[in-house]
Amino acid sequence: MPYFDQDDCQLHYEDYGQGTPLLLLHGLGSSVRDWEYQIPALARHYRVIALDIRGHGRSDKPRERYSIAGFASDVTALIEHLALPPVHLVGLSMGGMIGFQLGVDQPQLLRSLTIVNSGPEVKPKSLRDCLEIARRWTLSRVLSLDTIARGLGRLMFPKPEQAELRRKIETRWPQNDKRAYLASLDAIIGWSVRERLARITCPTLVISADHDYTPVAQKAAYVAEMPNARLLVIDDSRHATPMDQPEHFNSSLLAFLAEVDSAAQPAPRMP
């Protein structure tokens, strides 16, 4: 299993396939394992690199304050460690936030950006927003990871035929380090790069589940602020779209990436 060191922290990643690099960033409380329905399909066309974000999976979990900017610095270090050309970056939820951060700070590192069920800020806009953030912050500290896992499993995979997906969440989530999980949650709350979205000029695909935590209209609003972005809504899906709609997700992502790569090819010379 490959690792690299960044600021006295050993970070784990997995590396599959060959070709143009495609970097996968998971969400809060997750790990590279939650890309299991994507890696085989994507690695037939790309060099797929999946990172366990600091504090998650097999990466170290240092006792420190985490930040989205710090996570993005880790991703930059991985790109430099592997001497990669500009990458296709796919980020889910918190991974999407890291993608946004990288896009505004290091746009030259990105060939394309795919944001899945995420946004460029987590700032309350109303009293209701403040109460919801406070509720989540409090429950995350009061409840055990086992209890949180059961609740998330029911919320993200409510259908009877999704029992196996619920089981995965209920098994994997409690394996988190609670302190690192809370530090990562704290890194999200109050974060924003909304005012700098115009810096992201690479082709950008925003994928939203029709039943994500935040409404499709919120994604449409920030997509309109980006110079080269489009929105794709996937029906009958919730927050974990790559898991509950893997075929639709994979085919849509591959079509977008093929379009980006085709546009980047130099025009043939005239005889």
Automatic annotation (TrEMBL):
SUPFAM superfamilies: alpha/beta-Hydrolases (SSF53474). Residues 21-122 form the AB hydrolase-1 domain. Keywords: Hydrolase. InterPro entries: AB_hydrolase_1 (IPR000073), AB_hydrolase_fold (IPR029058), AB_hydrolase_sf (IPR050266). This is Pimeloyl-ACP methyl ester carboxylesterase. It comes from Pseudomonas cuatrocienegasensis.
